[in-house]
Amino acid sequence: MSHTAHIPSHRKPRRSASKLALRAGVAGGVLGTIAVAGAAGPANAEPVTETIEMPTLGSLAAGSNLASAVAASAEASQQEALDQSLQTLEQAALKKASQDAKKAKAEADRKAAAERAEKARLKAEKEREEAEEAAERASRTSTRTQLATNSSSNDGGSSSSSSSSSSDSGSSASDSGSRTQAPTGSAASIVAFARAQVGDAYVSGGTGPNSWDCSGLVQAAYRAAGIDLPRISYQQSSMGSSVSLGDLQPGDILYWGSRSGSYHVAIYVGGGKYVGAQNSSTGVVERSLDWDPPSGAVRIL
Fold first, then answer.
1. N or C: which end of the chain has fewer CB within 10 A?
2. Domain 175-299 sits in CATH 3.90.1720.10
3. pTM score
4. Coarse DSSP helix, strand, coil percentages of the chain, rounded to the nearest 5 percent
């Protein structure tokens, strides 16, 4: 082979701009070495010619553009992933806000419905109490009318003197109260306890200490004096002995209705007055017997 023959080059695929630059530097170094060796050799030696392919500027630019394109693509992919993540978070936040709003609305609707139901219940209870009070008054009026009719029928054949005596015995309890001395002993304890509860609320089934029904108050007043009474009004009015309304004494139990079937009781406190747990509108009050005359009375003491 001639010394002037070309050394064939073996081209390999270019992988990156940095490798191309490295190969260019190595090739430059080889050329410089050959040039120095040629200068130092014998004068009659034939020059050695070697052809080495050098990378072009266009190839280096193409590699640089490729790296930039790859970097730009990676950045675009990262931005897209970030955008998708933000979109997912926004959708989740919107969904949660919607759910919270629905829950808040449902809770508000429930509270509004509960308030309406409570108002309706209170209104119905008030109407029921008013109806019960009206029925109670009507029943008392009917009972008094029936008693008056029976009394008139039984006394129809008696003399005028007997009628006068009967009228005196049936005089108003206020007259009887004016003749009654101040209570003492157990009666004083009963009266004092009853009057101490004036102003308390009336609650059906109430037994104190701040709310009562009629028989609950009577039972508690007698218990303060060391006397046990039944809980129900008709049982209380069946105790002791019957007394005339014209001969009442403090501590006597007043009843409305029949003695064995009374529907209301109270305590006579003297002076023509009584203390009783009337109804939810009035609570525990002290009233004159003339305000709502009782049907009868019993004495336990």
1. N
2. yes
3. 0.45
4. 55, 10, 30
